[in-house]
Design brief:
The chain has four helices and ten strands; from the N terminus they run E-E-E-H-E-H-E-E-E-E-E-H-E-H. The protein has a single domain, classed as Imidazole glycerol phosphate dehydratase, domain 1 (Ribosomal Protein S5, domain 2, 2-Layer Sandwich). The strands form three sheets. It has a four-stranded mixed β-sheet with strand order 1-2-4-3, with helices on one face. It has a four-stranded mixed β-sheet with strand order 5-6-10-7. It is α+β, with helices and mostly antiparallel strands and 196 residues long. The chain starts with a strand and ends in a 19-residue tail after the last helix. Strand 3, helix 1 and strand 4 form a beta-alpha-beta unit.
C-alpha cells in the first residue's frame, strides 16, 4: 500500500493526516471547518483514496491556518506515499459537473510544484470556509506534494457547487495520475528524474 502519514504541530495548529493512495474512498476525522471536511470527503470518495485527518487549529482567529496546514499535510503525505514515483502515469485531468457548475482539474506529478486556480466566486464564504482559501489550499497541496495543479471553474452560479466540482475533479484527476503503468520502467520522464 502506498501510504503517507504526517503530523504537523505548530503554535497555530495540530494536524494529523494519513493518506492511502490505493484505498476505497473512505474519509474519517474532522478539521473543525465543516465545509472543508465535506470537500475532503468528496476528494477521497471520487479519488478512491482513504484519508483520515484530525486538525485542531486557532479557529478563534479564523480558519486560515487550519486550511493551510491541512493542505500542507495532504501534500506531504502524497509525496511520501508516492516515493520515487517510478511507474506512474504521471499526468491526468478530469471534468466534473455539479448541477449548473463545471469544474476542471489537470495534474502533473512530475516533481515541479506549481498551482493555478481560475475561478470567480460569488460570495466571500461557503459555510465556515472563506472562498479566498480555496486557492491557498490547492497551492499548499501542490507545493508540498511536488505537483503541478491547474484548477478551473468553467462556469457556475452557486459557490458550493463550484467548489464541489473542483474537489471531485481533483480527486479523479489525482487518482488517474497516481495509477501505475505496467509498461513503464523507471520514472515517467525523459530527463530520467522527477526532482524539481
Amino acid at each position: 500500500m502506498r501510504t503517507g502519514e504526517i503530523r504537523r504541530k505548530t503554535n497555530e495548529t495540530d494536524v494529523a493526516l494519513k493518506l492511502e493512495v490505493d484505498g476505497q474512498g473512505r474519509f474519517g476525522g474532522q478539521t473543525g471547518v465543516g465545509f472543508l471536511d465535506h470537500m475532503l470527503a468528496l476528494f477521497a470518495a471520487h479519488g478512491l483514496f482513504d484519508l483520515t485527518v484530525t486538525a485542531h487549529g486557532d479557529l478563534q482567529v479564523d480558519e486560515h491556518h487550519t486550511v493551510e496546514d491541512v493542505g500542507i499535510c495532504l501534500g506531504k503525505a502524497l509525496d511520501q506515499a508516492l516515493g520515487d514515483r517510478q511507474g506512474l502515469v504521471r499526468t491526468a485531468s478530469s471534468f466534473v459537473p455539479m448541477d449548473e457548475a463545471l469544474g476542471f482539474v489537470a495534474i502533473d506529478l512530475g516533481g515541479r510544484p506549481y498551482c493555478v486556480v481560475d475561478a470567480t466566486w460569488h460570495t466571500p464564504r461557503v459555510g465556515q470556509l472563506g472562498t479566498d482559501l480555496i486557492y491557498h489550499f490547492f497551492e499548499s497541496v501542490a507545493t508540498h506534494g511536488r505537483l503541478n495543479l491547474h484548477a478551473r471553474v468553467l462556469y457556475g452560479r452557486n459557490d458550493h457547487h463550484q467548489v464541489e466540482a473542483l474537489f471531485k475533479a481533483f480527486g479523479r484527476a489525482l487518482d488517474a495520475a497516481t495509477q501505475l503503468d505496467a509498461r513503464r520502467h523507471g520514472v515517467p520522464s525523459t530527463k530520467g528524474t522527477l526532482s524539481a
